[in-house]
Amino acid sequence: MMPLPTLSVDILRDEARTFAIAEGSHTEPTLYGVDNGKTIGTYLEQKFRAYLKARYEFVEGNSASGIDFPTVGVDVKTTSRRQPQSSSPFKDASQKIYGLGYALLIFVYGKTDDPAHRTATLRIINVTYVEKEQTGDYQMTRGIREILEHDGNAEDLMGFMLEKNLPVDEIKAALLAERILNEKPPQGYLTMTNAPQWRLQYGRLITLAGTVPGVESIYRAASD
Asked: CA-CA distance, 158 to 163, in Å (whole number)?
């Protein structure tokens, strides 16, 4: 038996598009009448992982790694088009400035039920790939970058971070300010809400996909 090829980021992106197109023609009785986003997201993510597992060699994510595809540094997010958002583990407040530390592959779906046959269809509306450098918060990174462009200092940065309610104390803010002065953060495109887990909102980056660096439109349904 021939060994399976190793999964890469390029393959993952290509297969996400193929999977998205195929999923729209599949009917699923177990999801009929289901409106729970977590249940639908788990179904899609497990199905995508099984699809890849039959074709490629890769290490599956677990609670320790925290992401779906740790060997290629990518986490999969599945969300409804009605409210494109999901949660992500909170590790450190600096994630809002320098990103989550891994890339995102985001599936946005629309669901329709067929009462006559008691089946559901999940139509993938679009698939977006976000490089890890662009997974910071849009407003936070934009404000910090503007301060740096206007010769702002550590005090300016600290004041901005505390004003924007970044979940840090003054000592942590001072350390972050020094890091920022030496390491300008890239522009992020997520909206990240402070919580025990980050609440990530994807509306902006889905709209900007394909027009800004690091945010790629993998697939967009023709009628979307």
From this structure: 8
Residue whose C-alpha is closest to residue 202's, from 150, 127, 142: 127
Tokens describing residue 10? 């390029």
* CATH number, span 9-84+101-135+203-220: 3.40.210
Q: What is the pTM of this model?
A: 0.93
Distance CA 200, CA 89 (A): 10
* Residue 86 · residue 200 · CB < 8 Å: yes
Here the tokens at position 205 are 């980056």
The secondary structure of 147-205 as a DSSP string is HHHTT--HHHHHHHHHHTT-S--HHHHHHHHHHHHHSPPPPP-BEEE-SSEEEEE-HHH
pLDDT at 201: 94
CB atoms within 10 A of CB 173: 19
Both tokens of 144, joined, read 């910090």
Rounded Cα distance between 129 and 113, Å, is 28
Q: pLDDT tens digits, residue range 200-222?
A: 999 999 999 999 999 999 999 98
Task: Answer for the pair 48, 218: CB distance below 8 angstroms, yes or no.
Answer: no
